[in-house]
Amino acid sequence: MNQLIECVPNFSEGRDPAIIKRITDEIESVEGVRLLNADPGKATNRTVVTFVGLPAAVTEAAFRAIRKAGELIDLSRHKGEHPRLGATDVCPLTPIAGISMEETAAHARSLAERVGRELALPVYLYEYAQPNPARRNLAVIRAGEYEGLAKKIRQPKWKPDFGPAAFDARRGATVIGARDFLVAYNVNLNTTSTRRANAVAFDVREAGRPKKDAQGRAVRDAQGQPVTLPGSLKCVKAIGWFIEEYGVAQVSMNLTNLPVTPLHVAFDEVCRKAEQRGLRVTGSELIGLIPLQAMLDAGRHFLRKQRRSVGVSEKELIKIAVRSLGLNEFAPFKPEERIIEYLLRDPAKARLVRLDLRAFADETASESPAPGGGSVAAYVGALGAALGAMVANLSAHKAGWDGRWEEFSQQAAQGQRLKDALLALVDEDTAAFQCIMAACALPRGSETEKAARTAAIQQATRGATEVPFRVMQLCADALPLALAMAEHGNPNSVSDAGVGALCARAAVQGAYLNVRINAKGLADRPLAEKFVREGAAIEQRALALEQKALAAVYAAL
Fold it and tell me: Which domains does the chain have, with CATH numbers?
């Protein structure tokens, strides 16, 4: 697996599109880097840029962007709501795939050293790249901001990690580090008061607020240190500010550990704390990108609050999340531009499932041997699982069955998972066939070439056998759902459950035909026999479940 890292530099310019483009052009000039997003904010006068790639390419792109930002941005003239220290205020690297945090931190330190040396720019390390625990927190490093940097940088304890310990009036200083995935998230309030927004921010952020006595003086512990009252949300940093562009105050948060505090939990808690202070949340906005799972979890959360089935499509879950969080309040939220997995996906890997029904049928009917029976079997199986999910959803929402919504919701979610997995196999089956064709086309002149070609054909043949075998397994798992819906689901949809059972069984048998024909080409005969033997057992189980489901359907008709 290739090593993949993400870089999210924050530049202190959010109002001049020409300057922003010249910076992002530097990033895109590096081969092997993919620019995913550039999110400017007028009130904050700040642009959050996101790009990904191999470590060497990403650090080169980051270096060029930092250099260009230093040429174009004069921080001595900069005004904005967001705290900042430099023209390139912060430049974090985040591991995405095939690379550890320790390795990512090493790349961050290498980048920081180069920036300090070649650009003569003061650089501070933070988070995992910073060996000094007292200097790991970005807020601590940025305390005093640009306006206090001239005095701060001369203090021995605030000597930059790299670059000169001298104030750069135009460029300020840059903070470079390695961190976990962070979501920048702002919640909108029905007030213009920064003080009230800050009060809510202090209520929820992990750091909380200083404890004060009855006279309003800071309370200190036995060692003379200020005592704080922690906020209600772990792994959350927050401040309040007024956004003139929108005419409202916001609670601006950084969610630094989504498994600990998910997006929807942060939103609900801000709603609760705001209400306690006589305020109302009107919506929210995301800055930069967000993982798909965070949106799906939010969609399911808000459906559960309504006691509605969570077994709906990915698209519908995202739509529920967007509406419930109010992400469209100030600008349209476009999932294809804001969800990181959508930006990273390879369209070629899902070519068939993106076709409409007629185009898929036409493609299948063409003189090309792929897509063939394997892809069609996977698609038929996906339709069977989809019908099971549909009946479960109709059952969850049936009048008089309110007490059973959660039972049917879980079954609908299972159907959705099977449907999505089978849809992925539609393209995988065709890709497996194409691998065999590519292996057969390899040269076979020398003995070495012949051996390499034979090995490649065997590897591709195994893959072409495993894909329909997975189709069989998934479709067999869809049959118990069809049976349950035929026996206990909404009686008005019992025929749909029957059709789902027929589709799932047909897909099992169709996929088994592909398992058998591909297994014939395997030189590893014990493995081939195992595929055939286990496939036969799945086929028999599928036939038995289909008959039980059909018996229940006919009994109800």
Answer: 4-178 (3.30.990.10), 183-344 (3.30.70.670), 347-556 (1.20.120.680)
